[in-house]
Amino acid sequence: MSEIKKIATHRKIGVLVHFTRTENLEGILTHGLLPRTAFDRNGLNPLLTDQMRLDSCLDASSLSIGFPNYKMFYACRMNTPGAKWAVIVYRPSILWEKRCAFCTENAAKASVAAIRIDDRMTPQAFEALFSEVEGKPTRNALRLDAGSPTNPQAEVLVFEAIEPSYIIGIGFDEQPLVDEYKTRFPLVAMRRHSGLFGPRVDYIHWKK
Fold first, then answer.
1. Does some domain include residue 47?
2. Is residue 172 part of a domain?
3. Could you tell me if residue 121 is inside a domain?
């Protein structure tokens, strides 16, 4: 068993998640979740969630452990009134079966971007996602379980295609969207899961 898998198993990490516009679901369910550098050669032109990608990792897709990066997700929804969104829930085996880099906070932060990608791919970098953060309450005070990264903006950058077989299901915040996409993709588990569209339990401590 790999060290990454040992840590993930010990911490009982159950899922990874990725939020996206509903218009992108057909492409993801057909071709998988692809990094931006693979769009052209696969004939794809998805609606981009992050136009700027200040992390400079256009050859990677961004996922979160356990719960969406609600700060970014909220900003994206506010910036695109009327858009419809989905949260794709993935198997945690991506963590040890794919080439992943682990970022203790938003990958675009200068302090994170300054760390070499290879140094963010180690078991130590993975374990660092769950370290105490200076100036914040303890993880216990934040009411975080063992498998939740301390910083709600922590990211997993995946430098490979993520095949549809890794998808556990898809969450929506409106029942009509569930009904629509269940009809279009009957083999994929879909349900209304409004909790994925709100803040994390400790949001009050991360407002600034």
1. yes
2. yes
3. yes
- Give the list of residues 6+ apart from residue 102 with CB closer than 8 angstroms, or none: 120, 121, 125, 126, 128, 129, 154, 155, 156, 157
pLDDT tens per residue, range 122-158: 999 999 999 999 999 999 999 999 999 999 999 999 9
Per DSSP, 33 falls in state B
Residue 18 belongs to domain spanning: 3-201
Q: Full-prediction pTM beyond 0.85?
A: yes
Pairwise CA distance, residues 180 & 69, whole Å? 26
Query: Does residue 189 belong to any structural domain of this protein?
Result: yes
Candidates 9, 21, 18; CA nearest to 60 is 18
74-107, pLDDT tens digit by residue? 999 999 999 999 999 999 999 999 999 999 998 8
Cα(first)–Cα(last) distance of the chain, in Å? 39
Domain count, the chain: 1
Structure tokens at 110: 């200068």
